[in-house]
């Protein structure tokens, strides 16, 4: 095999910079991988959006490692690492992609090993990775349980070979729009007695941002985590503003629908949709959460239906909405099925214990 060099990739100032070649090649590998899985560009991001996503912030350090052929400068593979800086300091995440023409030559394993060394040198003991698997007929595989949704394909075989174990399975679903006309036809999209829907776009109003930070924090503990070794995230107002700035930098419009308990004024839940300006046919469903004490009032359905209705009004060109839900999250999945979402695949969350460096 040609000798291989694994090295950090310094991000360029912009995608137009003279030194942007390596970054553009890495960004191209991430997009080629998404196209390979889904057969379309719905999960591809412009290099500009990827560059904005990869910038480190006060809450996350992000880093790229690339594999170059020893004989030339060609980039054959890339690993993206994320390290939380304000909570979950024992963890890191990694995403490895190898050029389709260079697979089964040990490049992925070399990138994964280098990522593990970086993470453990940084004091991280748990490395988390995600794999994606389009539906191939839709049937649960033999054996039952969430793991039975993940096929033994290249990604899963690779994760196992690198020492990861599967800890959580998420269903990836798509809603095709319009549903009975643009933004119409969703069940239960008016607020129930005692609650009112509150909408904002991009920036949370100052008067609500403390409460919104608490909802965002709750999302990290209330959504199912399977066996993932994750602790509660810490969210405050600066972190909410950081996330809003990141979305702006990436060229996303963000639609939030929250629900307020009228008598107490308390925010009882929220749901978030994102639309990439570079791909206006597609929207992504982010968080949805209802606080425990307000559950059982159909607020999840009210908020989601209300936000989808608003999406149809403000972004009528959106044709597809994608969402990810833990396979064990029966309530959220039931709401999504009722709204018209249908499964298109599964993602696996994998975890590996590192020996500290
Ligand atoms: C998964 C991926 C990164 C593997 O990269 P790679 O350079 O081909 O992997 P390696 O050659 O280092 O393989 C290491 C081991 O993984 C397993 N593996 C990798 N690809 C496999 C395949 N297609 N089928 C079965 N096992 C496979 C094998 O055990 C292999 O060891 P072996 O070749 O000695 O049998 C590559 O296929 C890829 O980029 N896929 C798309 C992105 C992706 O799914 N990333 C996974 C995120 S965790």
From TrEMBL:
Domain of life: Bacteria
InterPro entries in the cross-refs: Acyl_CoA_acyltransferase, GNAT_dom
N-acetyltransferase domain boundaries: 22-180
MF (Gene Ontology): acyltransferase activity, transferring groups other than amino-acyl groups
Stated name of the protein: GNAT family N-acetyltransferase
């Amino acid at each position: 095999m040609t000798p291989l060099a694994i090295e950090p990739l310094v991000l360029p100032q912009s995608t137009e910079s003279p030194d942007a070649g390596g970054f553009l090649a890495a960004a191209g590998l991430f997009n080629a991988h998404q196209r390979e899985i889904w057969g379309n560009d719905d999960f591809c991001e412009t290099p500009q959006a990827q560059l904005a996503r990869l910038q480190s912030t006060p809450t996350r350090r992000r880093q790229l490692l690339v594999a170059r052929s020893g004989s030339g400068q060609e980039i054959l593979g890339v690993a993206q690492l994320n390290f939380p800086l304000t909570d979950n300091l024992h963890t890191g995440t990694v995403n490895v992609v190898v050029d389709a023409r260079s697979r089964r030559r040990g490049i992925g394993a070399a990138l994964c090993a280098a990522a593990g060394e970086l993470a453990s040198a940084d004091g991280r003991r748990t490395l988390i990775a995600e794999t994606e698997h389009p539906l191939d007929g839709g049937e649960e595989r033999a054996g039952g349980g969430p793991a039975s949704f993940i096929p033994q394909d290249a990604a899963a075989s690779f994760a196992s070979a690198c020492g990861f174990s599967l800890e959580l399975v998420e269903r990836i679903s798509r809603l095709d729009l319009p549903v009975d006309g643009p933004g119409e036809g969703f069940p239960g999209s008016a607020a129930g007695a005692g609650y009112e829907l509150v909408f904002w776009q991009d920036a949370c109003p100052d008067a609500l941002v403390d409460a919104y930070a608490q909802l965002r924090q709750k999302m990290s503990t209330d959504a199912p985590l399977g066996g993932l070794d994750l602790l509660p995230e810490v969210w405050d107002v600066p972190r909410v503003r950081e996330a809003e700035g990141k979305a702006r930098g990436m060229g996303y419009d963000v639609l939030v629908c929250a629900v307020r308990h009228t008598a107490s004024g308390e925010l009882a839940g929220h749901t978030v949709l994102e639309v990439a300006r570079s791909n206006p046919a597609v929207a992504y469903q982010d968080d949805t959460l209802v606080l425990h004490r307000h559950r059982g009032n159909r607020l999840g359905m009210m908020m989601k239906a209300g936000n989808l209705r608003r999406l149809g009004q403000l972004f009528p060109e959106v044709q597809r909405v994608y969402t990810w839900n833990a396979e064990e999250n029966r309530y959220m999945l039931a709401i999504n099925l009722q709204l018209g979402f249908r499964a298109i695949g599964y993602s696996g969350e994998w975890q590996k214990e590192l020996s500290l460096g």
